[in-house]
UniProtKB/TrEMBL annotation, chain A:
<dbReference type="Pfam" id="PF03551">
    <property type="entry name" value="PadR"/>
</dbReference>
<dbReference type="InterPro" id="IPR036388">
    <property type="entry name" value="WH-like_DNA-bd_sf"/>
</dbReference>
<dbReference type="InterPro" id="IPR005149">
    <property type="entry name" value="Tscrpt_reg_PadR_N"/>
</dbReference>
<feature type="domain" description="Transcription regulator PadR N-terminal">
    <location>
        <begin position="20"/>
        <end position="91"/>
    </location>
</feature>
<dbReference type="InterPro" id="IPR052509">
    <property type="entry name" value="Metal_resp_DNA-bind_regulator"/>
</dbReference>
<protein>
    <submittedName>
        <fullName>PadR family transcriptional regulator</fullName>
    </submittedName>
</protein>
<dbReference type="InterPro" id="IPR036390">
    <property type="entry name" value="WH_DNA-bd_sf"/>
</dbReference>
Automatic annotation (TrEMBL), chain B:
<keyword id="KW-1133">Transmembrane helix</keyword>
<feature type="compositionally biased region" description="Pro residues">
    <location>
        <begin position="177"/>
        <end position="189"/>
    </location>
</feature>
<dbReference type="Pfam" id="PF22564">
    <property type="entry name" value="HAAS"/>
</dbReference>
<feature type="region of interest" description="Disordered">
    <location>
        <begin position="167"/>
        <end position="189"/>
    </location>
</feature>
<keyword id="KW-0812">Transmembrane</keyword>
<feature type="transmembrane region" description="Helical">
    <location>
        <begin position="136"/>
        <end position="158"/>
    </location>
</feature>
<feature type="compositionally biased region" description="Low complexity">
    <location>
        <begin position="167"/>
        <end position="176"/>
    </location>
</feature>
<protein>
    <submittedName>
        <fullName>Uncharacterized protein</fullName>
    </submittedName>
</protein>
<keyword id="KW-0472">Membrane</keyword>
Length: 114, 189
């Protein structure tokens, strides 16, 4: 159990932020929306409350912009959008990730069964 | 149920706030505002009626310990993973790190260069403490040095005034080691 959690957190580190960036690639989304969506993914095993500090770091790092807006029903929402820097970071990650994944697959033996 | 509900959320946020004392004020406020907005949104969108449902929302958010630990980790990570080589020397905060140790000097730089938000805050709490410490050390050292100078002066005065034969001994002693040193090097080289 503990080992499984440790593995998940290790894999999450360095990849989850790009899942966040990809979520706002085409449309702005508000915090709760992003958090819910990511927490739904069992594999990621991301606790909802830990995603807000991540959003904060991405914003401070210039990857995301945010603005508060009134919602038609209920409390104000904080909407996040991708900045040009965030967009290029996401593009860069996509190319890196493919070769990274292929290398790990090759070394660990999780690639094509041959 | 009614009297408990507002307390529950307030207590939860307070428990988190208590654990964030090492973070810059604005980052702290931001996180608490985000969490409060999240809880409020969930409450209305899921039409929360009972305390059990509210507890469920808080449980999904995570325990105050887990949320605060994530806040420290994200505050300590210098930059985006994409723009930086793998963070080899990065030391993850084991428990709750001492407030001033969380922000390594190199972590302040990138934040400062990019956005003013919560930038000057990290070094701010560190400086007074450090300044006070070095100030104290300086005062002590200066005191000791001053005292030594005073003693030396006093001794010199006392010597000069009372003991006339002393200087004679002093001039002989340095002359002895000075003599062999010029003699040996020329013969050796």
């Amino acid at each position: 159990m503990a080992e499984g959690a440790q593995l998940a957190s290790g894999l999450r580190r360095g990849t989850l932020e790009f899942c966040v960036l990809a979520m706002v690639e085409f449309e702005d989304r508000y915090g709760t929306e992003i958090v819910r969506r990511l927490a739904e993914e069992q594999t990621l095993a991301a606790t909802e409350g830990t995603i807000y500090p991540l959003l904060s770091r991405l914003r401070r790092g210039g990857m995301l912009d945010s603005k508060w807006a009134e919602s038609p029903s209920g409390p104000p929402r904080r909407y996040y959008s991708l900045t040009p820097a965030g967009r290029s970071a996401l593009e860069h990650f996509r190319t890196e990730w493919v070769s990274f994944r292929q290398t790990v697959d090759r070394l660990v033996g999780t690639g094509e069964i041959a | 149920m009614k009297p408990n509900q507002p307390d529950l959320v307030g207590e939860y946020l307070h428990e988190i706030d208590l654990r964030l004392s090492g973070l810059p004020l604005l980052q702290r406020r931001e996180l608490l505002a985000d969490l409060a907005a999240h809880i409020a949104t969930e409450r209305t969108e899921r039409n929360v009626q009972t305390e059990e449902q509210l507890i469920e929302i808080l449980e999904r958010l995570g325990s105050p310990e887990v949320v605060a630990a994530a806040a420290y980790e994200e505050a300590g990570a210098p930059r985006m993973a994409a723009s930086v080589p793998p963070p080899g020397p990065y030391v993850p905060p084991a428990a709750y790190p001492p407030p001033f140790a969380t922000v390594p000097p190199d972590a302040q730089q990138p934040f400062g260069a990019q956005q003013p938000f919560g930038v000057s805050s990290p070094p701010a709490p560190a400086k007074p403490a450090r300044g006070a410490k070095t100030g104290l050390v300086l005062v002590v050292v200066l005191g000791i040095v001053g005292f030594l100078i005073f003693i030396c002066g006093f001794l010199a005065l006392a010597r000069g005034g009372e003991q006339a034969p002393q200087p004679a001994e002093a001039t002989v002693a340095p002359a002895a080691p000075a003599a062999p040193s010029p003699a040996t090097p020329p013969s050796a080289r």
